[in-house]
């Protein structure tokens, strides 16, 4: 048992301090916040936010001094022990240890954590920004010191997300004249890397949906986000006005994206496969008239997929239709001219006649509706 110079066992101090924390937490857990005054709740949340930063400071200090744990486990750091004993994912454990080592390099960040004015999330943002400054060939030691001072001050004014934006341009705050050209050069390099990272993957989930994900340069990505939001928001407002519950925002955005795709003018699209970009729907007249008929999306089932006749009818509202007459063995006997079920002048006439969606209980404006026919040869209407 090791004794310090003041004849006090450090282990006893640690144990008693942790026991006091546990007792305080148990007392708080025994209370019901429902009966707290609003001022008590606000005071609790403010103090706990500060305490969490101070707790993170202690945790990081212990992790920075955990070399003996690593030696005992035979790992390069304490992450193996954290994985085995604390069930912390090894990647997360190593990320914490990396932050702990980074904080030891920056005294002001460590002090901010200990005071509770810099959260763990903000400390992570600040240390990453400072590491970049440290690696910058133009920046000096004085620049690094000033950058750390500024970022710790900004931590009391901004969220972690806002602080990340500030951190990327902190050298401009330090010396605008000296770092402006370097900033422009760095932005150019970032944009070039973004172009190289641009990707889009599309796949069939075989459950009636298509999955996709991708990466876009920020300038294009922000435009994409705004366009989809523009198509999602009017539908959201319609539900709000009716007092109907809103679906998840992700679904609203997905529906907005689908609407964006459907409203693209085919005349402005590039030619693809020898013709203007088009998706073929193959369906017999008999199936088209059925309530529960089916159609093939694509030229055939091998290179396409099956959809309902109802979906085919919906797609046909604003589509160019090319009638094909097929023989018994799918032999093309006749190909008609391209035509549309509804041309622009017909939509204008329908809008004058019908001020909103004609479906029962729906008041969607005509701009958000498709033109429909009740049946082949019957009167027309607009419906969402």
Task: Throw out a few tags for this protein.
single chain, 384 residues, mainly alpha, 3-stranded antiparallel β-sheet, two-stranded antiparallel ribbon, 16 helices, 13 strands, elongated, disordered C terminus
Topology:
Blueprint (H helix, E strand, L loop, with lengths): L9 H20 L8 H27 L2 H7 L5 H7 L4 H14 L3 H9 L4 H16 L5 H14 L5 H9 L1 H5 L1 H22 L1 E6 L5 E6 L2 H25 L6 H14 L8 E2 L2 E2 L4 E2 L2 H5 L4 E4 L7 E4 H8 L3 E2 L2 E3 L5 E4 L3 E2 L3 H10 L16 E4 L6 E4 L1
Antiparallel strand pairs: 1-2, 3-4, 5-6, 6-7, 8-11, 9-10, 12-13
Helix pairs in contact: 2-5, 2-6, 4-5, 7-8, 7-9, 12-13
Rg is 32 Å
- How do the helices and strands follow one another from N- to C-terminus? HHHHHHHHHHHEEHHEEEHEEHEEEEHEE
Oligomeric form of this entry? single chain
Numbering strands along the chain, what is their spatial order in the largest sheet?
Answer: 5-6-7
Q: Report low-confidence residues grouped into runs of 5 or more.
A: 273-277, 375-383
N-to-C span: 78 Å
The main β sheet shows up as: 3 strands, antiparallel
Count the E strands: 13
- Alpha-beta classification: mainly alpha
Descriptive overview:
It comes from Nocardioides panzhihuensis. This is DUF222 domain-containing protein. Residues 47-351 form the DUF222 domain. This protein has 384 residues and is mostly helical. It has a domain at 41-195. It contains 16 helices and 13 strands. It has helices spanning 10-29, 38-64, 67-73, 79-85, 90-103, 107-115, 120-135, 141-154, 160-168, 170-174, 176-197, 218-242, 249-262, 285-289, 309-316, 344-353; strands spanning 199-204, 210-215, 271-272, 275-276, 281-282, 294-297, 305-308, 320-321, 324-326, 332-335, 339-340, 370-373, 380-383. A 3-stranded antiparallel sheet has the order 5-6-7. β9 (324-326) and β10 form a beta hairpin. It starts with 9 loop residues before the first helix and ends with a strand. The relative contact order is 0.04.
């Amino acid at each position: 048992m090791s004794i310090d110079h003041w004849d006090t066992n450090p282990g006893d101090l640690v144990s008693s301090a942790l026991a006091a924390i546990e007792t305080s937490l148990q007392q708080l857990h025994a209370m019901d916040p429902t009966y707290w005054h609003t001022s008590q709740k606000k005071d609790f949340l403010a103090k706990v936010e500060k305490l969490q930063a101070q707790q993170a400071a202690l945790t990081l200090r212990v992790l920075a001094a955990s070399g003996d744990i690593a030696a005992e486990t035979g790992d390069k750091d304490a992450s193996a022990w954290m994985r085995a004993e604390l069930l912390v994912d090894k990647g997360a454990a190593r990320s914490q240890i990396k932050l702990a080592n980074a904080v030891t390099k920056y005294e002001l960040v460590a002090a901010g954590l200990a005071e509770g004015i810099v959260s763990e999330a903000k400390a992570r943002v600040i240390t990453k920004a400072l590491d970049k400054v440290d690696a910058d060939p133009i920046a000096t030691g004085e620049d690094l010191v000033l950058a750390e001072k500024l970022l710790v001050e900004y931590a009391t004014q901004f969220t972690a997300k806002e602080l990340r934006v500030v951190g990327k341009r902190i050298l401009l705050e330090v010396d605008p004249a000296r770092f402006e050209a370097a900033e422009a050069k760095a932005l150019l390099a970032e944009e070039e890397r973004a172009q190289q990272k641009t990707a889009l993957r599309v796949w069939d989930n075989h459950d009636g949906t298509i999955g996709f994900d991708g990466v876009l340069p920020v300038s294009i990505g922000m435009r994409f986000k705004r366009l989809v939001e523009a198509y999602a928001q009017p539908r959201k407002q319609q539900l709000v006005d009716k007092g109907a519950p809103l679906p998840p925002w992700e679904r609203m955005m997905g529906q907005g994206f689908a609407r964006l795709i459907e409203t693209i003018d085919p005349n402005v699209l590039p030619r693809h496969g020898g013709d203007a970009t088009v998706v073929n729907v193959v369906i017999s007249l008999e199936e088209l008239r059925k309530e529960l008929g089916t159609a093939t999306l694509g030229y055939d089932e091998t290179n396409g997929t099956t959809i309902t006749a109802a979906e085919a009818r919906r797609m046909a509202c604003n589509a160019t239709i090319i009638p094909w007459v097929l023989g018994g063995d799918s032999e093309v006997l006749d190909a008609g001219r391209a035509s549309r079920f509804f041309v622009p002048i017909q939509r204008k006439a329908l809008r004058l006649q019908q001020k909103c969606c004609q479906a029962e209980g729906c008041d969607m404006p005509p701009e958000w509706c498709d033109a429909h026919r009740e049946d082949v040869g019957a009167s027309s209407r607009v419906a969402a």
